[in-house]
Design brief:
The complex is a heterodimer. In chain A, 3% of the residues lie in helices and 32% in strands. Chain A is built from 1 helix and 9 strands, in the order E-E-H-E-E-E-E-E-E-E. Chain B is an alpha+beta fold. Classes of the chains: A mainly beta, B alpha+beta. Chain A binds chain B through residues 49-52, 54-60, 62, 73-74, 78-79, 89, 91, 94-98, 130, 132, 134, and chain B through 20-21, 83-84, 86-87, 125, 128-131, 420-421, 424, 427-431.
């Protein structure tokens, strides 16, 4: 159906529930036993590299055009290689910044960090700048309703 | 084969994860209460900053150097090193965490893997994932693995992993290793080694075993000799549980009030009991030490230590706190300004089954106390440390009325970094 989405049951926990051992039956067997699967789990399914995963809070409106608003939560994976077009967390001028990585000018000797807001200028980085890609943003989480 | 994975300048490296600008600059981390330097970056070592130097002396000695200073932030160090261990666990068949920054691995069953390459990859993976540089030593036993890791750490040519897999490499390494750098040879034995003309690990390993036995009459020294000669003697179990546990702090100010001292000592005793329970052990001896500030030569000095054997070995908080309190009472002398105290539990053994002593009148309470401790541990783990504390652990409120302040707030930590991995309020800000 166009315009609709599937709603999937999910569970948010780090505890892995114990599976029942199939074959051991006490009392009337459940017809569902053979079809049992683990519940969907954000921590297990979305965080591929837990040891490399860190969280950050978006501050300001420099990435508003990319859908990143002030206060959004970013899930950062340090272990991924940053590719052209990735939204990354960089460390520059003694602070963390979240921007789109633009590697298309590499042959001209610089790379760019692109904001997504016309009020901000792209940050051009050359060899002489102290700069590091700290991690790649894999998800952002937005709050629509506060508990 | 065994490996040891060792975090390079662990605490400094943890601080640098969220402060990449400090890469290549002198950084030091101070002990609790900002007393003295406990960790140094390589740049700080090159400046000539010695381990253990009091913070105020650092300021005197290097007035013109720009040195980044941090209070120790064990919450951060524990979380980040936990990530390192978690990676190691996936890469090695068996692992034994030895300390906050060292982890042994047992690599048998990996014969078909190039261990040198395995180590280099592990280094890369840990650095990339956590931001922690590690050095890896691989050798036929734990003592030699330690020797190898020393080479991996100090010589860039090894690319962070030194594999000691032939006798030739072993002998070459031992000749370059000074005897006091050998695992298990303390300061005490180093002096005696020197008396007998032993300077390097090789000098020691080439003496006959009978000579080592006759001179040192010590099983650990002899075992070290055997390990240096290639035998595998240190049992894995010995790495798992600590034989004694010490919790001690320098106070932020000098203390004269016996009640305040008692509160500190109670808190150290609680920590010892918690650590015992964490590793499933019990202790049979509780000891307390107390001292004035040795750097204040203008003040009267006092140092003392006292221990007490427990009738029934225990990990029960109340028993250990009570015993430590009694010992403190015996140690305390009025008229001194105290700077440091500590609680040590010794005679540590496995937690169960413990034979309650016939003459221990508390024996029947034993089970009940154990259940109480388990409940308190659980609550403090889930709700946060120090949710439940003993009355004896509470400090007088800052306004001087009543008692409520907890341990964590009573430690001085002027330069403590945030906790971006354990507190939502501290996660990094992305501009």
């Amino acid at each position: 159906m166009p315009g609709s989405i599937n709603i999937l049951p999910s569970e948010f926990t780090q505890d892995q529930p114990l599976m029942l051992a199939p074959g051991i039956k006490a009392g009337f067997p459940s017809p569902a036993t053979d079809y049992m699967r683990d519940s969907l789990d954000f921590n297990r399914d979305l965080i591929r590299n837990p040891e490399a995963t860190f969280f950050g809070r978006v501050v300001g409106d420099s990435m508003i055009g990319a859908g990143l608003d002030d206060g959004d939560l970013a899930v950062i994976d340090r272990s991924l290689e940053a590719n052209n077009g990735d939204i990354i967390v960089a460390y520059i001028n003694n602070e963390f910044t979240i921007k789109t990585l633009d590697l298309s000018h590499r042959s001209q000797g610089y790379i760019q960090l692109l904001p997504a807001n016309p009020a901000y200028k792209p940050i051009r980085i050359t060899d002489t700048d102290s700069f590091m890609v700290w991690g790649v943003v894999v998800y952002t989480i937005k709050t629509w309703r506060k508990y | 084969m065994y490996g040891i994975i060792d975090c390079d300048n662990c605490y400094v490296s943890c601080e640098r994860v969220f402060r990449p600008d400090l890469e290549g600059k002198p950084v030091v981390v101070l002990s609790n209460n900002d007393g003295c330097v406990v960790a140094r970056s390589n740049e700080a070592k090159q400046l000539g900053i010695k381990a253990g130097v009091p913070y105020f002396k650092l300021q005197e000695q290097f007035p013109n150097e720009k040195i980044a200073v941090f209070s120790s932030n064990y919450e951060l160090y524990a979380e980040l090193t936990g990530r390192v261990v978690s990676i190691i666990r996936k890469e090695a068949p068996e692992y034994f965490r030895y300390s906050i920054d060292e982890c042994f691995v047992y690599l048998d069953g990996m014969e078909r893997i190039d261990l040198k390459e395995w180590g280099e990859n592990l280094h890369r993976r840990v650095l990339r994932s956590v931001g922690m540089p590690v050095s890896i030593g691989i050798a036929p036993n734990k003592t030699l693995a330690k020797v190898a890791s020393h080479f991996a750490k100090h010589y860039p040519g090894y690319r962070h992993c030194c594999l000691m897999d032939t006798d030739q490499k072993r002998i070459k390494a031992l000749k370059l290793t000074s005897i006091d750098d050998v695992w298990g040879i303390g300061r005490r034995y180093t002096a005696r080694m020197h008396e007998h003309g032993i300077q390097t690990a090789f000098d020691f390993a080439s003496r006959p075993q009978s000579w080592v036995r006759a001179i040192f009459r010590n099983i650990v020294v002899e075992r070290t000799w055997r390990e240096l000669n290639g035998q595998d003697c240190v049992p894995n179990e010995e790495l798992a549980a600590k034989k004694s546990i010490c919790t001690s702090r320098s106070f932020s100010t000098m203390i004269t009030d016996p009640d305040e001292l008692r509160t500190h000592v109670s808190n150290y005793a609680v920590r010892c009991a918690e650590k015992l329970r964490q590793q499933g052990s019990v202790a049979s001896i509780v000891a307390v030490f107390l001292n004035t500030n040795p750097f204040r030569e203008d003040l009267p000095q006092y140092w003392n230590f006292r221990e007490q054997r427990l009738i029934t070995p225990t990990a029960t908080t109340t028993t250990i706190v009570q015993t430590a309190g009694n010992l403190l009472e015996q140690l305390y002398r009025p008229g001194y300004k105290y700077k440091k105290a500590g609680v040590i539990v010794m005679g540590v053994g496995p937690g169960s089954p413990v034979q309650p002593d016939l003459f221990d009148t508390n024996a029947e309470q034993f089970q009940r106390m154990r259940r109480l401790d388990a409940v308190i541990d659980r609550i403090n783990r889930v709700q946060g440390t120090e949710t439940i504390v003993l009355g004896a652990q509470q400090y007088t409120n800052k306004d001087g009325v009543g008692k409520a302040d907890v341990f964590a707030n009573a430690i001085k930590h002027d330069y403590r970094s945030p906790n971006p991995t354990t507190r939502w309020t501290d996660i990094i800000r992305l501009k």
